[in-house]
């Protein structure tokens, strides 16, 4: 069942969204050659505790995971794209890092992700990240009241194809609000004019992610980390968005990430 949010409730989600956006920008700036992934995880734990927020990831235990997720970030490196477990890994020159986080404040959740390259970037990696960012902005633009959810999915797929990337249909965006995952599912490819009607009060997380040369994925033995099936690089961008009478409202906009890439 889809729960529509009032203007006041969207405002409360926006409070969470601002914190998520600011912390993501901070973590993206901190990601550098020589930094351990666990340093980023502990930085997030400290900042979330200081804010009095709650991580939506801690103790998260869906059917596909192996045991509860006892971390506050998903940190996915290079060919890993989703649900990467923070672990003892020191970032190397040219690594492509995706950072994903979802947090609740006073009962209202926001979810966002970004990808950055540490050190000297490969232009192909920057292009891949750019594709996810352009797809995200296109999807947000398509999220107009009176439209259909398929408009959002179609916008993502069109950008992916224009860059020459294929789209995996197993994982996409989702409804969000009181919990991290609510209805509806937001696919990363679809037909315009189809699906759930976009009405004011609908809140969704839109998250295009692409692999450089495949649309197939594989899982690590940990049951969490999802990688490209062929070992190619991956990237992921995400924002929490509210449909309002005046159009889409992005709740997780963030400051510029000065470390490597300008992000939305």
UniProtKB/TrEMBL annotation:
CDD domains cross-referenced by the UniProt entry: MetAP1 (cd01086)
Catalytic activity: Release of N-terminal amino acids, preferentially methionine, from peptides and arylamides
Annotated Peptidase M24 domain residues: 13-245
Key words, A-Z: Aminopeptidase, Hydrolase, Metal-binding, Protease
InterPro entries, sorted: Creatinase/aminopeptidase-like, Pept_M24, Pept_M24_MAP, Pept_M24A_MAP1
Residues that coordinate or bind substrate: 83, 181
Compositional bias per record (Basic and acidic residues), positions renumbered to this chain: 253-264
GO cellular component terms listed in the entry, alphabetical order: cytosol
SUPFAM superfamilies: Creatinase/aminopeptidase
Cofactor note: Binds 2 divalent metal cations per subunit. Has a high-affinity and a low affinity metal-binding site. The true nature of the physiological cofactor is under debate. The enzyme is active with cobalt, zinc, manganese or divalent iron ions. Most likely, methionine aminopeptidases function as mononuclear Fe(2+)-metalloproteases under physiological conditions, and the catalytically relevant metal-binding site has been assigned to the histidine-containing high-affinity site.
GO molecular function: initiator methionyl aminopeptidase activity; metal ion binding; metalloaminopeptidase activity
Protein task: Removes the N-terminal methionine from nascent proteins. The N-terminal methionine is often cleaved when the second residue in the primary sequence is small and uncharged (Met-Ala-, Cys, Gly, Pro, Ser, Thr, or Val). Requires deformylation of the N(alpha)-formylated initiator methionine before it can be hydrolyzed.
Similarity comment: family membership: Belongs to the peptidase M24A family. Methionine aminopeptidase type 1 subfamily.
Quaternary structure and interacting proteins, as annotated: Monomer.
Protein's name in the database: Methionine aminopeptidase
The species this protein was found in: Catellatospora coxensis
